[in-house]
């Protein structure tokens, strides 16, 4: 896989200037770090030496009178994290979401198999977005007058930062209509994420209409873009490495065999946890295709680092994607090799493999993403055959790109 532009630039700078160097982004001084030791240190300094930071654009979302900015951002993040964990966390996955995921994936693959071929990232984006949106605000893709996934695609085509204002877009109007309906029609309440945050507007003053629109956009963007990109990349790598696909098929056929007289039973949580090799494949794909190019923090105080000082107020970009391609940790780092995960020490993994961030800001959807991907592979390899019709040149600028797309033909076994 060739990953150009952003990651190549970081590697080039790191080669010349070291794993930590100064540069400028959008006219702002930025310290860029691909150093595992420093990055882990920064992740542990949340609220002490650094704060969560999304550059000036996103920071303007937080209008919280009477509170310090650091405490305000921390309070907002704590609220969002705890609320989303209730929706997408481990307990919800075990008790509620896993069978729903399997059902949606079955339906999606069945529909894809009726077509001559599909562009994987496009159809996977719609599948992931529609399912996530159903959990968040009870979106019904089949009966909604608006196609939310198409609206997202149009926004993301030109998106380089978290949008503050997207009036006039289909997404913006759709969500304003949903909010209006929920507020004016008590019978329209569904017991979902949106109902919860509307209920909390009485006690959480930051939950304005604009904030709710941006929050839902951000949550859906996190699933829409990341999982669809990893699915597209996985088909590219599996087509190049048939032995990996054979290993996955054997693992999942063994799961069916162990069900004795009930091979068509729904996937269980214990079965998901038993997918050792599949999870290694997912880790390896995440390692090579880490969707987030960099994680941003802002220095609250001067921070000494290896003989230099990061001045207070400067932005720090932690490039965990570069860490994951370091030959110091991963032998032949550009090689797709899921078996490498059997040999890696857990402490080495925790410090060098961070596809979902690190510290107390780790992405709340980490387990949700892995369960979604593992369930998708389970249905795929046990019920379908597939052929790569046309591959893609993979690039990063700054997020993963797939040129004219990864086109796959599916057929039922």
TrEMBL record:
Membrane topology value: Single-pass membrane protein
Any GO molecular function: monooxygenase activity
Annotated residues for binding of heme: 363
This protein's name: Cytochrome P450, E-class, group I
Superkingdom of the organism of origin: Eukaryota
Keyword Oxidoreductase in record: yes
Keywords: Heme, Iron, Membrane, Metal-binding, Monooxygenase, Oxidoreductase, Transmembrane, Transmembrane helix
Swiss-Prot/TrEMBL cofactor(s): heme
UniProt subcellular location: Membrane
Originating organism: Trema orientale (Charcoal tree)
